[in-house]
Amino acid sequence: MGKRVLVVISGANIDFLQLGLIAQSEGASATASRTLRVRIPERPGTMLALLDGCFEGLNIADFQYGKYHATEAWPVFTVAADDPAKLALLPERLAAGGYEWEDLSGAVDVNFRAIPLREELLTSPLFLRLDFYERSGALHDFLDKIIRGRANFFYFNYRQSGERIGRALIGLDFDTPETRESFVETLPSRGEGYRLCTPLDAAAQKRILGA
After folding, report:
1. What are the tens digits of pLDDT across the range 11-27?
2. What is the pTM assigned to this prediction?
3. I need a surface site. Which of 78, 95, 160, 194 has the fewest CB within 10 A?
4. SS3 state of residue 29
5. Are 206 and 189 contacting, i.e. CB atoms less than 8 angstroms apart?
């Protein structure tokens, strides 16, 4: 079943970034789903640690995150499972990991993808467009192999669409402009599990940042 992902890496001199709705398809629905907002420390590696530790065996149908606080993050996930029993175990996993969370199923701001983002908290931002093959674990594998340890997430926008190709907008922040440029220079435009990964053009980045 295909998914659509949009990932953005960048800084924006705005208090609130709202992107348009990404089209959904009937294929994106599942037997059971719920939307959760999870608190994690705002530091490198914590987002992937959350995914590794709590979401194994579940389908992430929607993933929204924007950096708006210096020390804490609240990514929002809509998770689905064919077996409701698997979904019911998620709160236990989060509790075991020491995560604070709340249920946002049906929340208006989540439905309209109103994702908060503060540019002044970013150092050397980058926006990436990712087109990947929709199969179990493909997005996680990309983040693990290409991003882990090299940059910090500051934005993530993805919604499963039911298509064969998933599309994501990802925001990455780097310690210095030099490390950002080194990442771009060595980033494969295509690879195992994905058919396209490219930085956004300057004009698109300026529009997103409100420049």
Report:
1. 333 333 333 333 333 34
2. 0.81
3. 95
4. coil
5. no
